């Protein structure tokens, strides 16, 4: 199953129209059509927006599988003493495991993007 197929299944599961999906995420219907035909794929930023919109992980959106990286989670917990989920829970924002993992993944993306910008890539 391709990325577009997973996006389309999410749209159908939510009983929404493709037009509404495009309006909500500022995607042109032409771009959506290009994704369907395999002429192009969503940008990294757009994939992050889509994953957040549907509350799914980037791993699932890209591959159809959830990829667990326990060593990375343990590294972050050891470095900071608490997980993202624990910190947000303290502020009244309880998250389930997949939500906390998504936020962690997004933070890693931001860190990578900033490093890339600092290198001038």
Percent of sequence in beta strands: under 5%
Radius of gyration: 16 Å
Shape: globular
Distance between the termini: 32 Å
Mean pLDDT: 80
Tally the helices: 8
Structural class: mainly alpha
Number of strands: 0
Low-confidence stretches: 70-79
Spell the H/E element sequence.
HHHHHHHH
What is the chains' assembly state?
Answer: single chain
Largest sheet: none
Helicity, in percent? over 70%
Question: Descriptors for this entry?
Answer:
mainly alpha, 121 residues, 71% helix
Outline of this structure?
With 121 residues, the chain is mostly helical. It has helices at residues 3-13, 18-25, 29-37, 44-54, 58-63, 70-80, 84-90, 97-119.
Mind explaining what this structure looks like?
The chain is mainly α and 121 residues long. Helix content is 71%, strand content 0%. It is built from 8 helices and no strands. It starts with a helix and ends with a helix.
Question: Can you lay out the helices and strands and say which pair or pack?
Answer:
Layout: H1 3-13, H2 18-25, H3 29-37, H4 44-54, H5 58-63, H6 70-80, H7 84-90, H8 97-119
